[in-house]
Write a structure and sequence with these properties.
Blueprint (H helix, E strand, L loop, with lengths): L18 E7 L9 H5 L3 E8 L6 E3 L21 H17 L6 E5 L5 H8 L4 E5 L16 E4 L15 E4 L8 H12 L6 E6 L1 H6 L12 E2 L2 H11 L1 E9 L4 E8 L11 H27 L5 E4 L3 H9 L7 E5 L17 E2 L4 H4 L3 E4 L5 H10 L5 E4 L3
Parallel strand pairs: 4-5, 4-7, 5-6, 7-8, 12-13, 12-15, 13-14, 15-16
Antiparallel strand pairs: 1-2, 2-3, 3-9, 8-11, 10-11
Helix pairs in contact: 4-6
The protein binds zinc ion (ZN).
């Protein structure tokens, strides 16, 4: 395997990984029709490194060739009320701060166009999104006048597109060459003063909270304030603000074009490096604890919540996963499909009456009380435990 041992942002070589997960599903939300297919699902290793120069964290074992999405990929966006409020405030704030009333904007990696629709609602003249995954896919968010999605990658070939701001949300973490995208965008902007807004999962938060099950193969990069600052300053932007939002889980960057500074480094790198080392120690201890707890006499175990967190957790258990009978989920589209790697079925809550689990692991703390009640209402009395992190 070819390891990416030089930092993709600043090219500093890094000697060792601080956190390793082996043989995790390459696409953890992709469920499979039968056991064999699930067992043979593409797997890869995660070897997280931290750059001591710029604070960027990346999976040096990431192989972009493996990222092939197949039918069965479950990527439905369930907008919680909390997310809806966040997105509306964001759109309104961007229109105000960037002075975008009556102006055209573009979004790179727009998904189904939810944010494009909000931006037009908040006053921009038009919002054009670019996203190759939207080829032949219909979306309810493109019905409003001014909203459109171009199902291809955004690049220098779109120089003729009119735009007064560029948005890009939850894209950078998937790129093994993030500097290239930032430089391409800078080239497209040219001499004009076009502001940009980037949003990524906040790795500073992930490290602080030891949220180890947010580490998934699909994310090659984990962005911190210093690394994202380094990226944009080197590509030719001046940072306006880097803020944490959405319960500190997102990092939100606003920047404007400037002259590139090829040696720039954002402040706060030492704290990130320290924080990464602590995360590695805590996460490894946690993993060891779960493995011994579940391989010891745990009886039949189920995990409630067949999302990426629960699926990554189950696959990281190794032989500890032998006691795992099923994963429970409320999403009916997942039922009777098989989890990649460990190959256990996803079932409806009622199935627990047949399984009679001894232990129910809860993958989302937020719903703990609700889930425990639901299980007791089925007449069952298992132990409960929350998958922390
Ligand atoms: Zn670096």
């Amino acid at each position: 395997m070819c390891l990416q041992t030089n930092c993709p942002v600043c090219n500093t070589p890094v000697a060792e990984a601080f956190f390793v997960l082996t043989d995790v599903p390459v696409i953890c939300n992709q469920l499979w029709p039968d056991d064999d297919a699930a067992r043979n699902a593409p797997k890869g290793d995660v070897e997280l490194c931290v750059c001591e120069t710029c604070g960027f964290i990346w999976n040096r074992a990431f192989d972009p060739q493996r990222m092939q999405y197949a039918p069965g990929y479950e990527n439905a966006l369930h907008f919680s009320p909390k997310f809806q409020v966040f997105a509306e405030d964001l759109a309104e704030g961007l229109v105000e701060r960037f002075g975008l009333h009556g102006k055209p904007i573009v979004e790179i990696g727009c998904g189904d166009g939810h944010m494009l629709d909000l931006m037009v609602q908040k006053g921009v003249a038009s919002a054009t999104g670019f996203d190759p995954s939207m080829k032949d896919v219909a979306s309810p968010f493109t019905e409003r006048d001014g909203v459109s999605i171009c199902p291809e990658y955004f690049g220098v070939q779109h120089l003729d597109q009119r735009f007064e701001a560029i948005l890009c949300r939850h894209v950078l973490e998937h790129l093994d060459k993030p500097l290239k995208l930032a430089q391409d965008i800078r080239q497209v902007i040219g001499e004009r003063d076009v502001p940009i807004y980037f949003e990524v999962p906040n790795a500073d938060w992930m490290l602080r909270a030891v949220s180890m099950w947010d580490v998934i193969y699909e994310h090659v990069g984990y962005w911190t304030a210093p690394s994202v600052t380094t990226l944009f300053e080197r590509a030719g932007f001046e940072i306006v603000s880097v803020q944490e939002g959405y319960g500190d889980q997102f990092l939100m960057v606003e920047a404007r074009p400037a002259a590139p500074d090829p040696t720039a480094v954002g402040p706060g790198v030492d704290a990130v490096v320290q924080s990464a080392r602590s995360f590695g120690e805590a996460a490894n201890a946690e993993l060891k604890l779960w493995r011994s707890r579940l391989s010891a006499d745990a009886g039949r175990t189920v995990i409630w919540g067949a999302g990426s967190k629960g699926i990554t957790f189950a696959n990281a258990l190794g032989s500890g996963a032998d006691t795992l009978a099923a994963m429970v989920d409320l999403n009916t589209r997942k039922h009777e499909l098989i989890v990649p790697g460990i190959a256990v079925p996803v079932v409806a809550p009622e199935k627990l009456m047949e399984i009679e689990p001894d232990l129910v692991l809860i993958s989302n703390t937020q719903y703990q009380a609700e889930i425990e009640q639901q299980v007791r209402d089925l007449g069952l009395q298992p132990d409960f435990a929350v998958i922390a992190g």
